[in-house]
Each structure stands twice: as C-alpha cells, then as structure tokens.
C-alpha cells in the first residue's frame, strides 16, 4: 500500500473539509505570523502556499532584523520606531535565531550629503549619487538611539576616528576618515524561524491547518478554487475572510480571484555567499554596512562561517525569473574592493547566490531606495460569494509580529471575535525556555545531553532552540547514525524533519529545513543519501528519488549557481 507523507495528508485534509473562517493565501513570514496570531485566538484558520512554506520573498532576505536607520531619511519615523521596538522584542522572544549584530559604517567624508539630504527627504528623489558623510550619519544614529529605550537591548552607537578604526579593523580601506559602530540584529536562519512561527500556530489545535504546494487558481460561488500542485486535484474552499499575503505576487493572486489590482511594485534584491576565510576574518565578526558610490546601501557580514554580501535594488517584472545576474556579482565584487581594497574576491569563492523581490507598493517614478518599507491593508468584497478579501501591501521581516497583530486585529473585527491572546512578549518556538545565561545553558545541556552527548545536544540547541529536546527524544527512540556524507546531521534527524515539517520535495530540505545549500555543503553523493533517507517517509520509489535528486540539482544550478557536478569534479582532482 502506498505511503502517504505527512504533507500529502495535510493537503488531502483540506479537500476533505474545504472550509474555514479565514483562508490565508501565501505562507511567507507575514502570512505565517498572521496564521499564528489567529490560531492563538482559537479562530478556524487555514494557510496555503503555491510552493513550499517561506520559499518566496521571505526566503531571500539579508538575514537581518533591523530598525532601518536609512528609513529616517525617508521620513518614516513610525516605521523606524516600530522596527526598533520589534527588533528588541525579537531578541527576547526568539533568542535562538535572533542575535545582536555589531555593525560598522566606514565613512570617507565629514560633510558630504548634508545639503542633499533635505532634498531627498522632501522629494524622495535620489538625484546625483552622493556619499552620506559623518555629520549626516551621526545625526541619524542619535535619532536611531532615541527610538531604543527599553532597558538597553543593544548598546548605543560609537564614533571612531581613522586611527582607532584601523586598529579595530586593520583591513578596512585606509582612506576612510571615520567609522560609526552600532547594533542591530542578525537572523542566522530565517526559514527555520518562520517554521517555528508556523508550528506555534499548528500546535494550538485542529482549528489551525496549513498546507504547502496548494495554489489559489480561481474563485466560484463555493469559494476559492485551490489546486493541489502535487496531484493536480482542484476543489473549492469556503471562507468568510480571504487574506492575500502573497507578497510580490499579490496582484497576480488577486487577478486569479477575479479581483484585479495594481498594488505592488517590488524591487529585486540579490545576495552572494562566499567561502572566504580572509574576508571573514577582516569583518572582525561584525557587519560592515556602508554606502556604495552609486548611493546604494550595501552590507558585508559573517554568517554560519561564510560571508554574506548584498544587496541590489532593481526594478523587476514578476513574469520573469528572479535570478542573481553576473552584473550584480561584479557589482558586489566592486563594493568589497571599495571597503577592503587589498582582499581579492572572485567567482571561485561563491558557494551560493539568491535573489528575491521585495513586496513593496507600486511606486511609479519614485526612486527604488525611497519606496516605503511600511505596510498597508486593502479591503474589498470577495465578489463571487459573500465575504471580504484583505490584501497585504508591503511588510518586512523585522516587523512581522506587529504586522500580524494589526492584520489579525482587522480580521477579528470582521468576524466579530474578541482578541484573547497578545503575541507581544510571547516566546516563539524554540525560544521558549531558551537558556539565557551560561548557568542555564549548562543545566540544559546536562538535562538533554545524556543520550546523544553534550556536543551533539549543543549542536541541536543551536539549530532548533529548545525544540531540540523533542528531536533528541525522537533520535533516541531507534538506532541512529551520522550521514556518511555530512556527519553534522544524522539519519534520524533528517527523518524527523521529513515527518514533522511538511517536506514534500528534496529541495525543501536542502534550502529551508537545513542550511546545507546556503553554506555550500552539498555534493551529489549527499543528495543521493538524503533522498534515500526521505524515500520511506515520503513514499518515494527509486524512480521518484532519482527524479527528486535531478530536480534539486537543476534548481540549485539554475537559481542558486550551485553546479554540484562541476564542484565534485574539482574536488576529485
């Protein structure tokens, strides 16, 4: 009898009970956070995504939780205040994935940009590219610090002259005049954080349901037409409120629902990941955040033993593939040379590349860098049946909790249901009970390390937060062994992810359940081994397993620039 995977069962359950009070279309971080918020209120809520969970715009972030210092120049003081507040909050409620990030801004001028800044503030036009000098950045950081008054989640900024700056970071461009250092936060595994938020919602009970690889393709009198993209099955799903959180695809989703809209105007941002020990050491363990000579704010920072470089801000046609171009890579290399002139980087250092389109509002002739990163909610009748369609326009990772509380508040009002739970200060997933002190850390390892050993318990705590406890229980229920081609993971751990986290395709595991692809840790042999572990859990036969390996290899090569066959050939030399 064919095995039905957990993800298959979740999709089938929607067709078996095709209704809910609320249907959320789009399982990026904002849709998932809204799902969690509603589930905590006891609302009958379902979330679907045409692809995997958190596989669209939310999977292409700069891995930062930040207050958005540059939004001050746009006059978006409300957004900066909310962003700083939410950043400080996430450091407390998601400490397993969100960590303080020391950030250094190199400056090559004292007064540059002072006269142009008011014009940019008033008109939102970029004008001639001009570096922001030390005075302007100092004013911005003083304002930025003023928004963070919650007992010191992060230290205040510091300014340093050339001599002290080069003592701290000697590989910086010696032509600099000053550096400023302040703190934001890093998010070292955004996909896993989103999956934690999703699990929080699912754990509230049977009234909260989620299914990936389910696409909204139309609307009829019985509800939204949903298509299971694995089997091709279609069915109508009834809901009183339909919430469109499909990010840069919002207008396309509305069009499919018969509600044409022109809300969106997202811009493409690309990143590359380098395996470059010399550059990694040069960062001093912190982010380098600066302005390139074209006026674009860019970043270089260490992450998972690699160096992440980003990002661009380019107009993009959503009907076209979203890819990192060779011109963008050349752009990144030029900016590294600008800040670290004696460090050589080339394409041989790249282990991964990724691109996404920001879910920004339509902006016509407004310069991309000045388009608001704030969000709004558009409401309209469903049309084909009674009910309300809410469309989310905008939003970003940092503010996902506050945004979800706002959006779910509107939904609760439509349903006539009172709020019973606030998510403010509510720990997320593996952040619950996370050991915040060295003593608590030692106690946790002592309590959980007997069966798997303390080094392994530590690795799992780093990877999953306190949810590692449940994973350790699963690992010890049957014989386990490290993967032959990556001993940092074990066979039972991969099996757990497949069973508990709706893995449907091999690529889901490589890109979103683990960071294996991000750090350049893949080989053809490892893909074959992983497919072999997934096969009995997901019901794959030999042909399906081979097809999954081929599909994953193709996506890695075409979308992320990872050619495993070429890499294996080089390693064999």
Automatic annotation (TrEMBL):
Keywords: FAD, Flavoprotein, Oxidoreductase. The keyword Ribosomal protein does not apply. GO terms for biological process: glycerol-3-phosphate catabolic process. Its cofactor is FAD. Residues 21-368 form the FAD dependent oxidoreductase domain. One of its GO terms (molecular function) is glycerol-3-phosphate dehydrogenase (quinone) activity. Residues 422-544 form the Alpha-glycerophosphate oxidase C-terminal domain. The keyword Oxidoreductase applies. Belongs to the FAD-dependent glycerol-3-phosphate dehydrogenase family. PANTHER family: GLYCEROL-3-PHOSPHATE DEHYDROGENASE, GLYCEROL-3-PHOSPHATE DEHYDROGENASE, MITOCHONDRIAL. This is FAD-dependent oxidoreductase. The lineage of its organism: Bacteria, Bacillati, Actinomycetota, Actinomycetes, Micrococcales.
